[in-house]
Amino acid sequence: MALRILTVEDEPEMADLIARGLRGEGYVVDVVTNGVDAISLATDGSYDIAILDVMLPGMSGFEICRWLRRQHEGLAILMLTARDAVDDRVRGLDAGADDYLVKPFEFAELAARLRALRRRDVIGTARIDVGGLSIDMLRHEISAAGKELRVSRTEFDLLRLLASNVGRALPRTEILDSVWGSASYVDPNIVDQYISYVRRKLDAANAPVRIATTRGVGFELIPDET
Ligand code: CA
């Protein structure tokens, strides 16, 4: 499933450049020009990334950033600062932004920053706890009931994705897209193969979670009843 980006930018040319460019990269992009519209669209929480201009009519990008951060912990937020002022960057990061980009910038740089946010797993929180399973994004470690679970990079990404979506069965295509990337051709059966690797490791560690298969839908991480 494509990542969804909310762009808040009041300069039409800049907004158009961002939206067209990011759609070309496979993102789903909505553009609004002010904070009220941004908040109204973001209320359902379906965005993965927000790109916020600082200088906006009405609410500033910082205010929108604070509001979004309170409502959606897992949202990745990139601020666009017009001035190359340390003050703006610090204010943005203090308001909860994950990164900033100083205007003017090349589109390629924006695209690279967004890829970096995805790699850093900013999309999602720094740590996810599901039952007794704990996933540390910063150190790239997983522990089950307090003991380290040794996993490969791909297994980590797979478990992180499942743990970020507890309560929902994830379709194979969504897992494939998120873990292996939509650009590369990969046999969809690889998802089942990796699910079985991870299941074996969870079993061996007596992890207090299991991966359930929902027929015709996909896979879901389920914490044990306590
Ligand atoms: Ca502006």
General description of the model:
The chain is elongated, with a radius of gyration of 19 Å. Helix 2 runs parallel beside helix 3 (61-71), helix 6 (153-163) packs across helix 7 (172-180) and helix 6 crosses helix 8. The model has no long low-confidence stretch (mean pLDDT 87). The chain has helices at residues 12-24, 35-42, 61-71, 86-94, 107-119, 153-163, 172-180, 189-204, and strands at 4-8, 28-32, 49-53, 76-81, 99-102, 127-130, 133-136, 141-144, 147-149, 170-171, 209-214, 218-223. Helix content is 40%, strand content 24%. It folds into 2 domains: 4-118, Response regulator (Rossmann fold, 3-Layer(aba) Sandwich); 127-223, Orthogonal Bundle (Arc Repressor Mutant, subunit A), CATH 1.10.10.10. The strands form 3 sheets. Strands 2-1-3-4-5 form a 5-stranded parallel beta sheet, sandwiched between helices. The chain has a 4-stranded antiparallel beta sheet with strand order 6-7-8-9, covered by helices on one side. The chain has 226 residues and is of the alpha/beta class. It starts with a strand and ends with a strand. It has 8 helices and 12 strands. Calcium ion binds next to loops.
